[in-house]
Amino acid sequence: MVFTKDKAAKKEKKETLEKHLATVQSLLEDRAEKVTDIQTKLVAAQAQTSETMQDQGPAREVIRKIRRDSLWNAQDIVDYLSGLTDIRHVLDLNMYLGLLKEGNDTIRKKEMPSHAFSDKISDTRKKSRRFDRDFYRTCVGEGLRTICYRFLLPPNRVGIKMEDMAVSQNFDFNKVMPGEQNPSPQNWVAPMLESKSPDEFANEVIGSGELVLMSSSGGTDPDDNETGDPLRSCRYVAAMELAHEPRVRRHLRNIYRRHAVLTTRPTKKGTEMIDAFHDYYGLHLIKNKGIKEHFPMDEKESAEKKSMLGPEECQELDREMKKRENNSCLQYLRILKAEHTGNITAHVHLPFKEEFDDWYNQDEQYKNREKQDLSPLMHELERVYLPLDGDTEEWNAERKKVLTQALLQFLLPKFEAEIRRELKEAAVKVGVETAGESLHSMAMEGPYRPQALMHTENRFLYPTGDLPMVGICCSSDPKEPTYLASVTERGAFNDHLAIPGGTRIDSGKYREKVITFLLQSRPAAVLVGTSGGFESRILHRKMNDLINEAVQRWKDKDIQGQDEDDEEFEIRRATFDKIIPARYDEDEDEEWKCNADLIDDSVAQLFGRSVRGKKEFPDHQTNLKIAISIARYAKDPLAELAYAWSVASDTGNFGAELLYINIHPMQQQLPRTLLLRQYERALCEVVAEVGIDVNAACSLDHMHGLLSFAPGFGPRKAASLKQSVQQLGEVIGSRRFLLEKRLVGPVVYNNAVAFLRIRNVDIDDGQIMNPLDDTRLHPDVYNRNNWAVKIATDALERAEDETRNKEKAGIKALRDVMDNSAQEVERLFLATKEEWESLYGPTFKVFEWNPRTSVPSNKWRDKVEELDLDAFADMIEQSGQGKWNSHLQMIKWEFRLPYADPRTPMEPLTGDKLFKLITGETDQSLRPGKEVTGKVVRNGDFGSRVKLEGEIPAFIPTRDLADEHVETAEDVVTIGMVVTAIVKEVKKDHMCVDMSLKMEDFKKQPSSWERPASLPPLDDHFDWRASQEIEEKKSKEREARLEAQQLSLGHTTVGDDGVPKKRMGRVTRRACAHPAFRNARQEQVDKELRSGGLAMVGEALVRPSSKSSDSLAIHWVVQEGVIKVIEVIEEDKDTDASIGNILKIKDETYGSIDELLGRYIAPMNDFVEELINHRKFVDMAEDEVDEKLRKERTANPKGFYYNVCWMEMHPGYASLRYIMSTTPRFHLIGISPNGFVWGSKKYANLDILLNDFKKNPRGSSTARRPAQRPTDSQPPRPAEPRASRWGSRPPPPSAPPPSAWGSTPAAPPPAPQWRSAAAASSGGQWNQPPPPTGYGGPPPPAYNRPPPPGAPPPYRPPAPPGYP
To answer: Tens of pLDDT along 656-713?
Structure first.
């Protein structure tokens, strides 16, 4: 073997050094740009200063006010900048110089207004100045710098002292600034004015004219007066410049980060909404959580903790700290979401000096920074800012005021904003990484492995391979069909079967169709998508039965039954042969096994509604495309995910479809760009681990997406390769073919070839397929260097063939050694299984055995194990060809497991995951202790069955229906009733929920219920005491609501005397005292209305409907003894026992019972009055009217006769009866608040309706009896306001007057009095115009009747506090 120098190792080292050099150069260039910019500013400032020296008077004044020596040193700034590595510190320096520049420009403009410098500034600087610095510029312009630094230490020296003392804890007062003219230790100490007090000093500078009193508020604030504090403006200037000094900021920022804490408080909305079952519970009362928990541990703290630990303990500490950091960042991401919804307010602050019990209600405490403990920051500032030898208390008080103002007004707001921004950035970074890990886990789910293989054969011995599948999209909409779609072994669409919605799949003709479809496609598995909910679960069970029958028919196709003669058998066999496609003729004797299973179809749902789905199957229905994608997803989940990525959005971004899959619960809070980049990285990693069948990727659209993620490829190169292969019209028979045909470039080939698989290819007889082309080995190890062939040859102890058949001999050696290794894998599997079962019985899990991890290295006995590959690697390294030991080890394992799929097979859906996919509920949304609402569907001997939202079945045992003993469920709830109950247990395996209506369960505090382990744990800084206080405050409201709920169910309540009252019945009672409302059953209300006789005609009473707890029933007396019941739907109910704020009849909405009676009942009473007073109305039975019409027709055959009467079968409807030949016919006339209804049209009065009828007597309805009751489908026209007639009722008359219906008075009556006296006295808000007269006849008679007899009985149970 010829050995060469280690060029590869040198090249790799050179590339590493070049990358490092490029990084260093990039940092230096960035830093050089900053230095150049600052130097340019300094040079320009010096040049401008020298120019202004021409005018010595103003120039001297400018120099005096600028105080350059006190604020900055050019060389010191350059030296400081050259050592910075954090962009924040560079920005601090830039901001400091910008602040000084603004002040200096202001001084120049004030002292030299006519100088050209002012014009130059206005021309060159187009940026607007910051308005928050106006007061600073004004003070500096007045020369207050020269005053404040007579008793204060300049900020640049403060920063230098702070930096040195932070490193060495000491400071050298003999330190000399670069270029300093008069160095002295006194320059590093604050000047002291020993002979003057602050007031005397202020009076002196005011008297000399140096200090000008100013107001920062422009005189608008009466408290903003400098006469009592003349040095306030001087302190403001010093505090502003000190707070912007870069070294000061840098050091104080680090201190602030170590001591700052995070606190969250619920808003008013959050206090009302958040309880122990809310999504944000645990986030709303975090108190004083250290900010440092959200960031990596600093080097100093880490070194201290690791100083006494061993290597393994240090690694464990790093893992714990990383986990804490990730959890904190994800928690802050949830806090941001809660803050965005207005439920939580988050604060970053220093710990407070004092703590309050109700801290979560102290808004002012968190707004006032003076209450925060500033001692860590003040201590650092005071030891460098105050004189060492001490000064008078008055002067030190002035200096401390400067420090306090710098912290409170400038530094703390800046630090808080920075921390909030950094917290968000860290949270987003961790959230993106976590979402990428979720997609990585999702993509690492392997193909579905049928049960026939999963539990009997190991995947390393018998790979899943390419199997035909059938996918089923179960439609939850009865209008949409359910589709079965079969795909071939390569995933190509084969056939489908549509099952109409609402059709039973296991009976009738569709049962045979499904079985025939299964026999024709003979899938390895049938996968049912879970998007259909419980329908999918039922369909899955039915499909298993149908599959068993189909499989049995396949087994018995050649077996004659006992009761079957020869002719019947031949007929059955001929029929069977017709339905089996010809492609199965070769393997009819093969055993067919199949099973049905449920599968997550979220990716398939996306395909069915995507652009790529429409492009691939333009003529297919959405559900059919979903079914196809379900089968493909079961075959290769990774390919479907890559396929979803492969389509660009309207903005040109790939992968946008993945954002619609619920990969991570917080993905909606993350930036799309970062998220898609992480998703792309995750898919690249998985594709590199799994590999790509390059021929399938180039020939099948749904597999092509994988090619984009091959290292070295991308969407453009992948599309180019596919197009080139299709143009050639050939398959790729070897990896070398890619280079020979120039399908890819050499660089792309070198990067990607190890991830491209050549498998299942039909090649010509003259070609030789290298088995290593379907392994993870790079061609460098078996083509260029030929090491793989040498290992195989040496393992088989064969001599290398030097003839022209060397290539064939090498490939034969490779195949032989790979067969030997495969036999060894099978031997080890059987040995492991036998050993396990001898010890533990038949409990060996076939699917969990992995030869890489389950077999010790000393157990291997294959040929390749006999070679010393480490020695071979040393020989290669000594020959100067580099380190190839890892490649040689990979050769060994690829011989044993060639391109073994690292993905674990798709696990059957069970437990929590299946429950979530079927119901859409999680432990957060449905858990013990939570109140849920459902509808009672059945009562049985052991309790009531309830349907929750999403068709989730629930059960309330009889023992949990009430606190006291209950005989039967009907005593408490009725079928159709809507109840609110407490969840006691969620049985996920049974897809059922156990609930309770017992008051003792309702009265439990929400926090007393056990929190599911799957939810994020509560933070260590969560304030349990505060949470209990909030729960106690809300307990009174909760008790009132529970009392109303028990009232609505008719449960036993405790009276004022402490004696329990019995149930009042099964009607859902209401807390309503309206005079027209009755808490009674239907028969009781009807009895009351009928007992009033004629006096009750036109009146209406309202009661709770027995259909559900969200509906009412109006009992309207149309005529004496005839009552029409109208259903009213309630919405927006305050409590279960209250009347809904919105009442609906059909499409019309009402706000109260008064409005219901005024706008709905009263107008219909007017139309009834018009009807009964019309000349064509007869108060007769329908049969009597028909007989009357026959007689009139017989008497005059040429006439057209018709009359209107009441309809007996349908209360509230009239019958327009007519005769045209010998048989009377009729039309149904309805009455609505908008008028009379005939067919689909409405008429304002009866005359218009009759005119239309005479034009077209047959009309739209000629049926003898109506098929269904007509409905008022059209929205009613707005009626005039009308007051309720349910006021105080006068006493009933001694005897009711006779009915006026059907009588014709001799004289016109007075104005109609259809309304009660109470309505008349109330102003007649809902008055309707009188009905028109008919055919010029006299006006209709009055529809007089007295008000209902007696006042309604009072509502017995008192309304709960706060209820209407």
So the answer is: 899 999 999 888 889 999 999 999 999 999 999 999 999 999 999 999 999 999 998 9
**Nearest to 157, CA basis, from 168, 149, 146:** 149
- The confidence score (pLDDT) of residue 1353 equals 40
Q: If you write DSSP's letter for every residue of 1219-1268 in order, what string do you get?
A: ESSSSEEEEEEEEETTEEEETTEEESSHHHHHHHHHHSTT-S---SS-SS
Angstrom distances, CA of residue 1270 to CA of 114, 765, 908: 92, 80, 52
CB 613 within 8 A of CB 621: no
Short-list 584, 625, 577, 583, CA closest to 601: 625
Q: Token digits for 1026?
A: 């505060």
Cβ–Cβ contacts within 10 Å for residue 1220, how many?
14
Contacts of the segment 331-335: beta carbons below 8 A, 24+ positions apart: 331/283, 331/1016, 331/1019, 332/262, 332/294, 332/423, 332/424, 332/426, 332/427, 333/427, 333/428, 333/430, 333/431, 333/666, 333/669, 333/670, 334/280, 334/283, 334/666, 334/1016, 335/264, 335/283, 335/286
Rounded Cα gap, residues 885 and 862, in angstroms: 19
- State the amino acid at position 387 in one-letter form: P
Q: Which run of H or of E encompasses 394?
A: helix 393-405
For residues 1101 and 1120, the answer to whether their CB atoms sit within 8 Å is no
CA dist., res. 282 & res. 280, Å (int) = 6
| Three-state DSSP state, 1325 | coil
Which helix (H) or strand (E) element contains residue 6? none
CA neighbor of 1245 nearest in space, from 1255, 1234, 1235, 1254 = 1235
pLDDT > 70: percent of the chain: 84
Angstrom distance (rounded) from CA 387 to CA 409: 24
**Burial (CB count <10 Å: 0-12, 13-18, 19+), residue 227:** exposed
Rounded alpha-carbon distances, angstroms, from residue 748 to 15, 556, 756, 989: 18, 55, 12, 51
Structure tokens at 133: 């610095």
Give yes or no for a contact between 159 and 245, defined as CB atoms under 8 angstroms apart: yes
Between β-strands 992-996 and 943-948, what pairing exists: parallel, antiparallel or unpaired? unpaired
Cβ atoms 568, 639 nearer than 8 A:
no
Q: Distances in Å between the alpha carbon of 832 and those of 846, 895, 905? A: 10, 21, 21
The SS3 call for residue 943 is strand
Write the DSSP assignment of 215-271 as a string of letters: -TTTT--TT--SSS-TTHHHHHHHHHHHHH-HHHHHHHHHHHHHH-EEEEEE-HHHH
What is the rounded CA–CA span in Å between residue 1287 and residue 1290? 9
CA nearest neighbour of 1162 among 1316, 1298, 1287, 1293: 1316
Chain centre distance of CA 1330: 58
CB 659 within 8 A of CB 672: yes
pLDDT one-digit tens code per residue, 975-1010: 988 898 999 999 998 899 999 998 888 888 888 899
Helix axes 885-896, 806-840, angle to 10 degrees: 70
Convert the pLDDT of each residue in 174-191 to its tens digit.
888 887 778 888 888 888
Torsions phi, psi of 714, nearest 5?
-175, 180
Cα–Cα dist 1001/960, whole Å: 9
Q: Mean pLDDT lowest for which of 485-494, 802-811, 1199-1208?
A: 802-811
Q: What is the DSSP letter of 661?
A: S
Listed residue (1072, 999, 1006, 1068) closest to 1360, CA to CA: 1072
Report the distance separating Cα 506 and Cα 808, nearest Å: 57
Tell which residue, 630, 519, 528, 663, has the closest CA to residue 581. Answer: 519
Question: Which of 584, 513, 582, 508 shows the shortest CA–CA distance to 550?
Answer: 513
Under the banding of pLDDT at 50, 70 and 90, the label for residue 114 is low
Q: Could you tell me which of 1185, 1207, 1188, 1202 has the C-alpha nearest to residue 1119?
A: 1207
Pick the more confident residue, 313 or 2. 313
